[in-house]
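User: Can you model how D-serine sits in this protein?
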Amino acid sequence: MPIYDNLEVADPDIYNALMGEIKRQKEGVELIPSENYISPAVMEIMGSVFNNKYSEGYPGRRYYGGQEYTDCVESLAIERATKLFNCEHANVQPHAGAPANLALYFALLEPGDTVLGMDLSHGGHLTHGHPVTYITKVFNFVRYKMKDVETGEIDYDEMREVAIRERPKIILAGFSAYPRELDYAKMKAIADEVGAYTVADMAHIAGMIAGKALRNPFDDGFDVITTTTHKSLRGPRGGMILCKNLDLGKKIDKSVFPGFQGGPIMQMVAAKAVAFKEALKPEFKDYAAQIITNAKKMADVFMDNGAKLVTNGTDNHLMMVDCVTSWGITGQETETLFDRIGVTLNKNMIPDDPRKPMDPSGIRFGTPAITTRGMKEADVEMIAKFMLQAVEKRNDDSAIERLHDEVIDFCLKFPVPGINA
Ligand code: DSN
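Assistant: Here's the modeled complex, given as structure tokens:
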């Protein structure tokens, strides 16, 4: 484990919280599909003196002096990102996924312009135009949905009709709670018909795209990809914008800085470079493929045991269970129950959920983190069985406590990178 002796003396409260979190991560099963474990190398650079440097601008064009090493790390991050995702331009400065999306909107749109994105109740993301976000005061968001929630197939005919009627400037692919693949080629054809940019927000699936286990939207002619770097891509917490066209790249750069952000968080930019180097290694392909193998296995075990999965399965890293239909308990009750046995996931709306976001019908979970820990199909089956037993014995406190002990014993067999590996 890394040594935190300075922190222990300087701030025992924060040190103790850190020790608690380390124990929680070691002893628990992490199934939140947007979470992962970074490598020790990524963790080291995140805690480095690059934190101390201001670097407004871009490599070779900065506003302050002393940039020889920041230029080096940002240039490497850009070079590796473009290689990893087969594109010409990368902006690696967005502080997170939401600012990346907002900077992109301001790069491509004028106030009042329209974006056509996935309906939020069918898996889309807050930054794709949820009414609670300020961005909906500036741009107009319209929606496409699934045609059939039993298969997850998107209604591309409806998407085309809406596109022809609403004339969006951006057609947006991407999601945070959709377990199937999108047909990027069909979306690109619709966008070409109405003169829209094609943008994929691949935050959830970036690792599988980098590892060639899922299709790269650039291969179907997409203009732009936005992403976070900390989910399946297994890098530091942050965002990134990629594109094929260098003129578009210039607009995006201006929008990120000075349009939208101040100085880049250079220790995170450096950590992105380290993570991209790891993702370019051949073994990352095995990791990406295993994420999906594990997710399919988990989905099968749940379905074989009578659980109702949204779209009846998965093609990617995540799945959702309709808990009310499957077990007669809400998503919140299920999340709390699994917390009690040391399995972490999140409550989630199911498509057209009659319940409220803070008390929805379903749960969402996935396999990027447990796959990083080295778990394979038999281990995934074990986790699914712990969860199903918890549901069955949910009113028996001592059975739940025993299950929690079994989960801890099981987890301690799998080292956590950055903690004990
Ligand atoms: N919070 C992320 C997720 O869990 O999907 C998306 O913003």
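A couple of observations from the model: The CA atoms of residues 43 and 303 lie 37 Å apart. The chain is about 45% helix and 15% strand.
User: Helpful, thanks.
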